[in-house]
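Lecture notes, structural biology module. Today: joint structure prediction for complexes of two components.
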Amino acid sequence: MKNIYIIGVGLIGGSLAIDIKQNNPEVVIHGISRKEATLNEALSLDLIDKKATLEDIDNADLVIISIPVDATVKLLPTILDKISDSGLVVDAGSTKLDICKVIENHPKRRNFLAMHPIAGTEHSGPSAAISGLFKGKTNIVCEVEKTAFKLQEKALKLFVDIGMRIRYMNPEAHDKHIAYMSHLSHISSFMLGKTVIEKEKNERDIFDMAGSGFASTVRLAKSSPEMWTPIFKQNKENVIETLEEYINNLKKFKELMEKDDFEEVYNEMKNTNHIKQILNGIA
Amino acid sequence: MKNIYIIGVGLIGGSLAIDIKQNNPEVVIHGISRKEATLNEALSLDLIDKKATLEDIDNADLVIISIPVDATVKLLPTILDKISDSGLVVDAGSTKLDICKVIENHPKRRNFLAMHPIAGTEHSGPSAAISGLFKGKTNIVCEVEKTAFKLQEKALKLFVDIGMRIRYMNPEAHDKHIAYMSHLSHISSFMLGKTVIEKEKNERDIFDMAGSGFASTVRLAKSSPEMWTPIFKQNKENVIETLEEYINNLKKFKELMEKDDFEEVYNEMKNTNHIKQILNGIA
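The predicted structure, tokenised, for the full assembly:
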């Protein structure tokens, strides 16, 4: 592998660039971005070796797409058109169904691998890229059987080498479960932040009262709306289902409080407490 | 100050014991607990110097109450009965109104100081006690004018010395604002945990998909139901109000998704994003 093109050099693309370059110093990392300023920043941070455009990717061994998922759906067919027979395109999007669908009948389907590396922080942009972000994390690969075997093998080695565990899942199951394990957390956090800001907007120094518990629960409300709006749009049905269940559970908790049934309030919490064991091992 | 009694030697009481002892090696820390096993654990962890009972506190210079807030309301009058004229009782409860009320006409009201040190983790019990927990954190003091001046002065020095900022507030304002800044976060986290566990209970290995975002948002669901049930009970009206607003914001978000108004979904998130700036400085 010699030429790797990364489309979108923010948190995910930039962090992949750092780790891949460290393991494979012979590789040339080409950066592609809509915004010249982002590319210049990525270059000055040494995330990429060269600036490039979509016109250049015919000599790519690997193209990594790490941009908002609506842009991926739009661009992916054109990118696949341009890739050579021995090149591979992978994406790192947080949804998988729409992305897999848009190229299901593409003549170069076997040159594409759908992935979701489950790693990140609440920050975004090239300056958010950090080394070691993917160590010990899960990379979900969808429809692996539709990708040429030699190409999958090469790509998966790259991701295993930066510390990832590979897990296989179909796109429907991915989108359904990830709505619970990730998308809902983002909405709960954004709406918690909104509720508190609305209430306390005239008393800014009230935020002195915030402890580390509030900071942790509301952390994801710092996430990028540019990335998250298209995720919610593509995974609309699943996300709405999780929201319905979450709202119902909150309502039930409120009703228990209203009728002074604190024995059941206690049980609600006690029964959820074993999340301790479940979460063991997650950073 | 020579004899300090700590009633409840768990996360808060135990962590206070560590820091106070470090700054004041001459002090003897006496531990009091309902459970003999807890006291033995605190002793073997060197959190306390001696085991004691409520009968012993007539020679206390300072009594720190760090037990569930319903137990504090029940015990506080008896403890104040027993304290000497030169002794001070403080509590560390997460609610303040009911606690201040129960002793408002007590003949020894001036020997009590109501506090809420805003610090903690999701763990509990003596083994959860850590040094430095209070460094840079806020200690909210209520009705300071009702405490004898010399006694406040002595106690506040102790808390400033372990790194706390002292903030003054009346009990009503404390309970109202803390419902937003802390109590709501705990419910949002418990119900998030519940929603995900309910859905995924038959697919435990789905939790492999959880990233650090989910772990952070659900962290408080590990908290102790024994501590939190009485907090929600005492702060019922305020907590119900926060829950109503939170549920309404979630419903509105869901409705925007249902009618495909993703421009507004974007705005909802963008408008909450400045929580970044607000949270700057919180651990």
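Point to remember: The domain at 3-169 of chain A is CATH 3.40.50.720 (Rossmann fold).
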